[in-house]
Structure formats: C-alpha cells, structure tokens
User: What shape does this take?
Amino acid sequence: MADEAKAKGNAAFSAGNYTDAIRHFTDAITLAPTNHVLYSNRSAAYASLNQYSDALSDAKKTVDLKRDWAKGYSRLGAAYHGLRQYDEAVSAYKNGLEVDPNNETLKSGLADAQSAQAAASASSRPRAPPNNLFGDAFGPDMWAKLTADPATRLYMQQPDFVNMMKDLQRNPSNLNLYLQDQRVMQALSVLLNVKMQAHTPGDGMEMEMPDSPPKERKRPADETEPVKEKKREPEPEPMEVSEEEREVKEKKAHAQKEKESGNAAYKKKDFETAIAHYTKAFELDDGDISFLTNRAAVYLEMGKYDECIKDCEKAVERGRELRSDYKMVARALTRKGSALVKMAKTSKDYEPAIETFQKALTEHRNPDTLKKLNDAERAKKELEQQEYYNPELAEKEREKGNEYFKEQKYPEAIKHYTEALRRNPKDAKAYSNRAASYTKLGAMPEGLKDAEKCIEIDPKFSKGYTRKGAIQFFMKEFDKALETYQEGLKHDPQNPELLEGVRSCVQQINRASRGDLTPDELKERQEKGMQDPEIQNILTDPVMAQVLKDLQENPKAAQDHMKNPSVMNKIQKLISAGIVQMR
Assistant: This one.
C-alpha cells in the first residue's frame, strides 16, 4: 500500500500537481514511516511549491534515516538555498559530495549555492529597478523550476529558448524584448507561480504588464476618425548564434537522421546496421537517451541481454543527469526488466526483474510495464512451486498430519497437510485429510472447498465424496448431500459409507415430506432454503409458480405436472427445504 501511494505521488509530481503529490507521499509515510525515499520525494514537492521550511524538515529527516544517501543532501541543500541560508546550503552539498564525490547534481547545487553566497555577501550586487516586477524570478533556482514543471520541461531542449532565459538571468530588464514569445510568458507563469492573463475588472489582481497598449476610448458616432500616419514596424534583429551553438545544432540534426536510419534498419531486422546508426547518433548527441534505449531494444531482440542491460542502466543514469522526461527513464527501466526476465532461470532470478519493473512504474505508470510486472510475478510463483515440488517430502508431511489427527490435534494436523500440499499440489489424499480436520474444527466452508478439490484431482477417490457429503449433511443441505453420495456410488457402487450416507439423506428428506419436522426444525429449514440460490431460482420461475398454484387450486392439473420428472425434482427440493408441505 505504501508503494501504491508512493507511485501516485510520483505521478502527481510528474504532472505538476505538487499538492496532490504531498498528500500521497504523506499517506505513504504513514504506512512506512522509516522509508527515507518518501521524505525525500515529499521534500521535493514542498520545494516546488516554494514551501522551503517544510522541505527542509523532510530533507533533514531523509538524511537522519539514510546518511549514506547522496540525494538526501541534495534535498537539504536545495531547501537551505530556497530559504536563502546559503552557508548551510554550501555545507549540505559538501557533505553530500563526501558521500558521492562524482554526483553531478550535488556539484551543480554547490556551484549555485556558492554563487548565491558570494552575491549575498557582496555589497555592490546590482539589484533590479524598483518598477521591475520580475527581478527575483531569474534567480539560481530558475533552471530547476523550469525543468520540474511539465509545461516548460520540453522548452529546455530548445536552444533559442535557453539562450533567451540565459539573457534574462543576466539582465532581467531585457524582458520587454521577449514578451511576444509565448514560451517566455509560460516560463514567467511558472517562475512567479501565477497565471499570466489579461486583467479583468473585479478579479482582485492589480498587475501592470510591461508594454501593454492603452485602452482606446469609444468615439461618438458623429466624430470622424483622424487620419493616422502609418508607422513602420521595426523588424526584429536576428539572434546571434555562436559557432559552437551552430555546431551543436548541426550535430543534433545529424544524430536524429542517424536515429531514423537505425529505426528503418531495425524494422528490416538488420540489427547490426541499426546498432551502428544508434551508436553514431549517441556519439553526436549524448543528451538524447532515446538513442541508448533504441539500441537496447536491438540488443534485446538479438538475445544480447547483458549489452541491453548496460545500455538501459546508462540511459537511466544519463537521463537523471539531464533530468529527462520520466517516460524515457521508465522506458529504459522496463527494457532492462524485460532483459532480466529473459535471463531468469530460477525463481530467485525474477526478483531483480520485478524490482526493476516496480521502479519503472514509479517513474511512469504504463499499462505495458504493469502487465510485464504481473507476468514476472506469476512466472516467479510458478517456478517457486516447481522448485518446491517433492512428492516424497509431501508424503512424510501427510503422515505427520495423520499422527496429529489421531491425537485430535487438528490445527497441527492442518499445518502438516498444508505443507504436504505445497510440496505436492496434486495429492488428493492430503486434501481429503485436511477437509476432515477442518470438519472437526467446525470450519465447514474450508472443509467443503478441500473436499471439492479432492474430487477434482481424483474423481474416482471415494473418500472425497464421503467427505463432501458429510459436510453437506452437517450443514443440513440434504438434497445436495444425497446428490454427492449418489455421484460417488457411480464410481464405487458398494462403498458402505456412501450407501449409509444415501440412507441418512433419504430419511431426513422423507421426514420433511411426511411433515414430521418440529416447528423449530421447519423454521430453520425454511430460512436456510430461502438463502439457497437454487431454491430462489425455483420460486421465481413462472412455470413453477403456476405449478404451485395448481397444487393448491387444481388437483387434476397438479397430477399432470407431477408426471414431469424435472418439475417433480424441483417440488421435492421445495419439500426438503420446508417451503412446500404435502398433506
């Protein structure tokens, strides 16, 4: 349940629903209060809502629970940074790097914190003009906010957008140059945590947007419009692109062409060629992990599972560094899980595959991944049963159960019969004996279920019918018990227990037919009969309703009905149930 709540929290976080994410993570923490990952995730959700005090509390708890986990220090540093406690933020990131010296997230966080620390201590730090509403929007945490929000995450892959945001971070006063770009407006909405829309009277929001044209006054009908001199709109200056940026853009375009060639080769099952294209694509652009996941798919198809797993692990690692789309990371994990399933030979081998599928679902809940998880769990269970199968040990456990049964220690007997069935699920005798033990303890539904399983495994085993019939007789379902005994006699006509069972059932049924039941017995049978689905079907049958009416009002018609074996059988069931009484 905690994992389910965690998965819901991750999904809500990915969708930008941070309040819902906090609620789900809180539910998960209630169920698993020592799980450090849950506090870490909730800390991230609080930070996304700028609730840095709560984020700090959860980050501290994360570190307390798992001091050797680098991400905890990353959460701690981010929370301190959000609270403008830069000295503490720097210390937190440094402590994290002692745990994981190569962690890129910690290195980046430390650099941002040190920059903010230096800026805070410098008295000559330039400040945004008083009339600049957006001066604080482009702080050191700008990139984290834009990457975390689903609406702006895709923009981070667009070089012109990144260049505009870098320019605004250096000089916020240039905002007017980019207001016509809807991506910038969307980014502002995320950074300021407000919806950027036109002001309407009465909406309670006084926000003057730069360069907003003044409203035109309405002109009277008799007033002519003055002739305006048409002004030439200034053409926008082309953005300057450096040689390095141009080269990167060309490499990305080339990488995409290599990917398309790889896809075409894969469809033709030319796997070696596909691998060559995907490899070249990743060499040109290591910022797109789809090249790795595609190459992993080829390795999986070729049966090269170790290579597939290596590519998937590299894709996950690189994806986290780049803060790639969660769906891409989930795809890599799913593909790794598929490779692990292909390699599994024992039930134990399925455990890492199942764990990998579960991780993929926390990134993105995909129906295909969920199906693969269910299939892996089912295969693991089947293998466990096969590995545990041992008829010799099963027989020994059944004999132990028999000894406890003779000593009237029925719970202990059930324990050993259950172990015998785990060792050999096709042992009809073990089901029969466990049914007898349940009957002694008064657990009739469990005993009936075991007796039916016994008959299913071995339809010629008489004991199964005597067990089932005895339970039904004890439950005063005499008609059903009679049917069970008669079915058993088809396989063993001279079995004394089955013959005695038939005699006892007929005796009880005849008592009802003769009206020999006491008022209490009659009432009990009627109540039990009315709960029987078969009796309910008979009573709601229109044909039987007419038969019952004729029994009371038209004796001649009733006699004709009684010649029908099906009708007679149903009447007999109603008599046995005490619903109908013959006088």
Notes: Residues 190 and 509 are 79 Å apart (CA to CA). The two ends are 61 Å apart (CA to CA).
